[in-house]
Every structure is written in C-alpha cells, then in structure tokens.
Write a structure and sequence with these properties.
It is built from 28 helices and 23 strands. By secondary structure, it is α/β, with parallel strands linked by helices. It binds methionine and zinc ion. Its cofactor is Zn(2+).
Length: 764
C-alpha cells in the first residue's frame, strides 16, 4: 500500500475570475441562467483537470459555488426561509437573494440579504442559515452528487466535500420565528435523515470516498458535542461511502477524546495552524483503525511548503500507523489561496521561489506522497534548495525598524489627555452639529475609476493624468457630500484599489500579485498583499488626497487609514516572524501617517479595524495574548494624535460583544460599527460597559443595493436612543460605499441626512 495525497477544496473563482464575471453579468440581466451555467461548467472542468494533472489522489468536488458553499449547504437541505421561497423566484435567484438581497419593487420583491459571518478566523464570509422548529428539512438538490457525476463524465473520480450536519447547525442561527433561546443544534434529529439520504445517494452512485467537513471540532463548543458526533456518525457510516472527517484551522483539543472513537474511515487534522497536536493525535489514533490525514501543506498561507520537514513528520506518523494509514493533504480547502503562481509575470524569480498558490500546493501534496512512497523527484530536491534560500533572505531583513520597535514604551501607547478633555477640544476644532452625519470612507468605485487605474497600471496613462483623474473624482465626491448635506466629509478613496493593498503598495516589506485573487464573499475577491520582510514607511501615503479634498470645502475632512491589525489580517503574513512583531511594525508606519495628516490640517482621522475580531484565535484560551498586542498596535498607531484631532475607528461584522472591553481599550473618540444586520444586543453592550465616547451604529446595510427608507432609519435611531446617549451619536451607513452605484447611494444618503435632521428636531 502507498501513502495517498489529498486536496480538501480548491478556489472556485476561476484562474481569471471567470465566475465573478459570469455571475455579475447574470445579476445585471445581461446573460441568462443557461449562459451562467455554461460558463461555470468550464471553470469546474478546468479545476478538476488541473488538480488531476498534478497527480493528486483525492480531488474535491461539490465544493464549487456561485456564491458561498455554506449557503449552498442550506439549499441542499432546504433550510430556506419562507420569505425567499414565497417570492416566486427561481431556485437560482432564491439562492442569490439569500446571499445578497434583491429589490425589484415593480415586481413586489424587497428581500434583505441573510446575515454573513466570517468563516472561522479567515477573511472568507459565509451566509448564516436561519433555523427554527418550522424549518422543513428535505433533500432539495444533491449538489454533491451532481458535481461528482459531472466530474465522472469527464473521466475524473472525485471525493465529494460535504459540510457536516453538526457544523452546519452549530454555525446556523435561530430564525426570527423560533422561540426564545432556540438552538439550531436541537434540529439535529430532523436534519439527520436528509444527510442519510444524501450520503446514501452518493454511495448508490458509486462514490467510494466522501469528505465531511466538521470544523466546529476545533472550536471550544465542539468539545461538548461528543454525544451528537457519536450518534450522527454511527448513523451516517451505516449508509455512507468511506468518510474522511475533516477538521481545520485549529487543534482538536479535548474533542480528540471522542473523535478517535468515531466510526469513520479517516480523520483529518490541520498541522499548519495547529502543528502542536501532532504527537497527541498520532498517539490517540494508534490503537484504532482510523486513517490519519495530515494537513501539512497550508491552505491558508502562500508560502512554499518545506517538503523535507513535512516528509519527516509524515514518516513519524507512518512509523506509528503504517504506510496505508497515513494520507498527506492540504491543511484546509485551498479556497483561501490564489489559483496559480504561473499567472504571475511581475514577481522576480527569487520571489517566485518562495511561494506556492493553490495549484502549486496540489503539486506539493503529490510530490510529498511520491517521496513518501520512495520516489524522491527533482521537484523535491528543488524545494529543499528554495527553502534554504528563503531562510537566508529572512536573516538579512531591515534592522532599523526592529530597533525602533524595541525602543517603544507604554507612554507611546497613550493619548496625552483622557476622552472628556479631548472631546471639548474636538467640539471646538471640528464644529460638528449634534447627530453629525458622516460616511465610512469609500464612495462608489465607478467603471471610469477602474478603467483609469487599469490604464495607469498598464502604462497607458501617465502618473500625472491618473492623479488628475483621481483628483477629479475626489472633487465629485466632495461636492456630492456637500449637496447631500453631510457634516463630516471624506475624500472617497477613489485612489484605492483595496483598503489593504493600497497601503501595502506604499510600504516597504510587501510584494503583490497580479492575479492573486481570493474570494472574500460572493463575487467579491481580494488580492491580499504578501508581507515578505520587515515593514516600514518610505513617505506619506494618503496625505495628498486628504489635503486636496480638504482644500475644496469648508466642512471638516476625515482622513482614512487602514489599521495595523487589519492590514496584517488581510495580508498573507510572513511565516518567519510573529504576527505581533509584524503588526507593531505596521503600527509604527501608520503612526507617522497619523502625525503627517494632523500636521496637514486634517481634523479627524479614521483608522479602520474591521478585521480585529476575525484575527481572534479560535480557542478562547488564546484570546488574551492576541488582544493584548492587537490593542497595543492600534494605540501605537493613533496615540500620537493631539487632543483636538478626532480619532475614529470603524468595525464591521462586529459581533464583538465578547471582546468589548478591548474595543473600549482602543481609546478612540468615535467608533462606527455595523449594527444594521446585527441585533440590539451589541448596542446594549456599549451601554452596559459604560462606553461614553462617540458612536455611529450603521443605519443601513451597504452590502445590498436596496435603498433604506427614512422611516426605517428613524425607527433604528429611535430604538438605539432608548439605550444610547443622544449627545455623542453619529449618523452613518454601516460600511464603505465602494461597491454601490451612485443612484442608490444618493437616495440612501439623502434619506440618511433626512434622518439626522429629524433626530435633531426630535431630540433637541
Ligand atoms: C471593510 S471596512 C471599509 C472601510 C473603508 N474606509 C471603506 O469605506 O471602504
Ligand atoms: Zn466596514
């Protein structure tokens, strides 16, 4: 017997973002459902063939999606809220409406999007299913079987990837019609028969292996689900193809006690994010019959795997378990990495030699398996050389910034005065009215902007002309805000391709890809910068834009920076330095930028930290350590500001009830949060925890094209003011407007300003 290789999942976007193009043109009513299907069928075919070409044994299927695989899982088991089913839309449009909302008032359709949450500690977002006692589970559409068959017709045998029933429910939320305190997991008994049927169908179709993802097992809450796991997997294993139960992004911890006894074929563990569990897991499964799938090749980073080290580790497992009880695999789905390095033309050979994207990772698992089976290939030898060269490069990184960081003291983390004194200074300096209106920073990024940027990047537009075009855009945005009657203006961020990439491009220590897109949610993809060495700032990054915008208007201007924690969390970090060190180096660069903006007369500066929460370790035991350096980094970047300068911060997907004390410890003057989709619990937390600084709860959801009415926003303000203080309340959307169109933005912001006027009159 030989050691096999496996890939747990692959990017769904296509090597040239084909899926984005196809779905967006369908959404714009430019193409039909048939066109869409034909386009994405090509993408699926290509991904299977390219993985197969690398020689991987277990090739994933069923993990493809047009929007979100978790949303698909809800559709498979018919967990579709009634408001969508009764809309009369097609199944495809229902799925899209669940993901992104749909407004067609002439047809009587006005559907909000369902809530989205971060997928564990990644920057991928999944749609949160809504479950209640009235949810009618049934096998709606076995997409896992459909994709398996589709691949089979191409002559490729795949391993279907199914979201496990326990994780499915554990990550769902109670629907509005559910009784108070309802737990979706209590629906397990009614969901189970659907999974039985689904897996039975796979088996009947000749599927030999199935991958069932149960990442809830790496969370604390997984540890209390032993009885559920035992029961569910006993039942499923009676009818199912051989099950590989996969866990990823963290360690099994105490869950190992029951996982080792589950009646499944194999268990997969993540040895990238949780390498420390190796010995313990090997020892635990040794007396069982379980096959152990070793997640050695990172699904979350873009660094080349150290194949020699991986081989040694796998050999240790083989020594304990035997050759045929070990599988070498990616640590998680590769959906968090770009498709392929071969599309990159601007990276140097040296840089290329450090990296490995999804397809190259497929190669790595295959090469590793071959080496374990006694065939050390040329590719293996080259890997050993590349890894050694990278280590050498790291040793020669920048020492000036390391020294500056070492000299930082507590004092550098503190504003010179406390909030009440700062507030008095800011009232005077900014002159804002009560219920000040503002936005979160970006304005619609029109086609013209993107075309200008593309031309500039291709060298078809001079730097001068490009900057002129952006200045014109800034002027449009400033005039637009004046026309709407907003109080605290922004420059609109037209010059930014992306809130992280933009900064990375101006900092030392980063490199960029041309096509390194990674799905963030739906058809939104990002191209995370890669931190390759020590980080420093070579000069002001945003000052010219904010200063220009400021020169156009009498209203106060808010400068716009992305915070250190978010830059770190939305980049691919180095593997050779701690995240803490990388974060603090970023904070130092931003600190200089804050000082420069202030000196240029910018009266308010917003430092966005939307990613602070998603960086939280998955296990609570690890939280304090992270939060301590994350908060210190934020403060290091902002505490340099004078009292009169109003420091804002912005958070979205901000389910941060449980880290509130740390949010408070950031010591910002104003924070804006996403509250339009969340419940009032968060607002209550602010009150309970004695938060007295400024707060701007998002009054409408910018992720959807629907225009919120004035009435709707007034209602929200009313409810919030039952809890919050009217004297330090900002009126704003819940995030930036860059994905929106101008028409809906104008209507929405007019309604927003109307709401503020009403509030001023009502709460005078
Ligand atoms: C994801 S948070 C986005 C904040 C940024 N300032 C924007 O308005 O786009
Ligand atoms: Zn946001």
């Amino acid at each position: 017997m030989a050691t096999k290789s496996a890939v747990l999942g692959f990017p769904r976007i296509g090597p040239n973002r084909e899926v984005k193009k196809a779905v967006e043109s369908y959404w714009a009513f430019k193409t039909s459902a048939e066109d869409l299907e034909a386009a994405v069928k090509q993408v699926r075919k290509q991904r299977w063939q390219s993985i197969a070409d690398k020689g991987v044994d277990s090739i994933p299927s069923g993990d493809f999606t047009l929007y979100d695989h978790f949303l698909d899982a809800a559709n498979v088991v018919n967990a579709i809220p009634e408001r969508y089913t009764k809309s009369g839309l097609s199944a495809l449009d229902i799925a899209f409406a669940m993901g992104r909302g749909r407004q067609q008032l002439d047809k009587g359709i006005d559907l909000h999007a369902m809530e989205m949450k971060k997928w564990f500690d990644s920057n991928y977002h999944f749609v949160v299913p809504e479950i209640s006692p009235s949810t009618q589970f049934k096998l709606n559409k076995n997409k896992y079987l459909d994709e398996y068959n589709e691949a089979k017709e191409l002559g490729i045998t795949t391993r279907p990837v199914v979201i496990g029933p326990i994780t499915f429910l554990a990550l769902s939320k109670a629907a509005r019609d559910a009784p108070a305190g309802y737990e979706p997991l209590s629906a397990l008994d009614s969901l189970l028969p659907v999974y039985v049927e689904l897996l039975q169908q796979l088996k009947d179709a000749g599927v030999e292996h199935v991958q069932i993802d149960e990442p809830v097992l790496v969370q604390d809450k997984g540890e209390s689900l032993g009885a559920e796991f035992a029961k569910v997997y006993k039942k499923l294993s009676e009818v199912s193809p051989k099950i590989t139960l996969t866990t990823y992004f963290g360690r099994l911890g105490k869950s190992l006690d029951f996982v080792k006894d589950l009646p499944v074929y194999a268990v997969h563990i993540d040895l990238d994010r949780a390498a420390q569990q190796f010995d313990e897991v090997v020892a635990a499964v040794k007396p069982t019959k379980l096959v152990l799938s070793l997640g050695l090749v990172s699904g979350r980073s873009i660094w080349k795997n150290d194949l020699k080290a991986s081989k040694e580790k796998a050999e240790k497992a083989i020594a304990e378990l035997g050759q045929d009880r070990v599988v070498v695999s990616t640590s998680s789905s590769l959906l968090h990495t770009p498709v392929t390095l071969t599309s990159e033309t601007r990276l140097t050979d040296e840089q290329m030699s450090w990296l490995s994207f999804a397809l190259e990772k497929c190669d790595e698992v295959a090469v590793l398996a071959k080496a374990l089976n006694g065939n050390t290939t040329e590719a293996f030898e080259k890997n050993t050389k590349d890894i050694a060269a990278r280590r050498e490069f790291e040793r020669n990184s920048d020492s000036a910034v390391r020294d500056r960081l070492a000299a930082i003291t507590e004092k550098d983390l503190k504003r010179s005065e406390e909030f009440p004194a700062r507030r008095a200074a800011q009232v005077e300096y900014l002159g804002l009215p009560k219920f000040p209106t503002t936005t979160i920073g970006s304005f619609p990024q029109t086609k013209e902007i993107r075309v200008a940027r593309a031309k500039f990047n291709k060298g078809e537009l001079s730097k001068e002309d490009y900057e002129k075009a952006m200045e014109q855009e800034v002027e449009t945005v400033v005039r637009f805000q004046e026309k709407c009657g907003l109080d605290l203006l922004v420059h609109g961020e037209p010059e930014r391709n992306d809130m992280v990439q933009y900064f990375g491009e101006q900092l030392n220590g980063f490199i960029f890809t041309q096509l390194g897109w990674v799905q963030s949610y739906g058809s939104r993809y990002v191209r995370p910068p890669i931190i390759v060495s020590d980080v420093s700032r070579s000069g002001p990054m945003t000052v010219r834009w904010s200063k220009y915008a400021d020169s156009l208007t009498k209203s106060p201007m808010k400068g716009m920076l992305t915070g250190p924690v978010t830059i770190l969390n939305w980049s691919f970090p180095r593997a050779d330095a701690s995240r803490e060190v990388q974060c603090k180096q970023l904070a130092l660069a931003l600190r200089d930028e804050v000082a420069d903006l202030e000196a240029a007369g910018i009266k308010a500066i917003q430092v966005d930290e939307p990613a602070i929460r998603e960086g939280l370790p998955l296990r609570k035991a690890d939280w304090d350590n992270y939060l301590e350096w994350a908060v210190a980094s934020f403060r290091l970047s902002t505490a340099v500001a004078e009292s009169k300068t109003q420091i804002h911060s912005h958070f979205c997907y901000s389910d941060f009830n449980d880290i509130f004390a740390h949010i408070k410890a950031l010591d910002t003057d104003v924070i804006s949060i996403e509250a339009s989709k969340a419940d009032m619990k968060l607002i209550q937390t602010f009150k309970n925890e004695g938060y007295n600084s400024g707060i701007g709860p998002g009054l409408y959801d910018i992720h959807s094209p629907r225009v919120p009415s004035e009435e709707e926003m007034k209602e929200k303000v009313k409810t919030m003011l039952e809890i919050l203080d009217a004297n330090n309340f900002f009126i704003n959307p819940d995030c930036g407007l860059k994905t929106r169109g101008w028409t809906e933005t104008e209507q929405s912001l007019n309604n927003l300003v109307g709401t503020a006027k009403w509030a001023r009159a009502t709460y005078a």
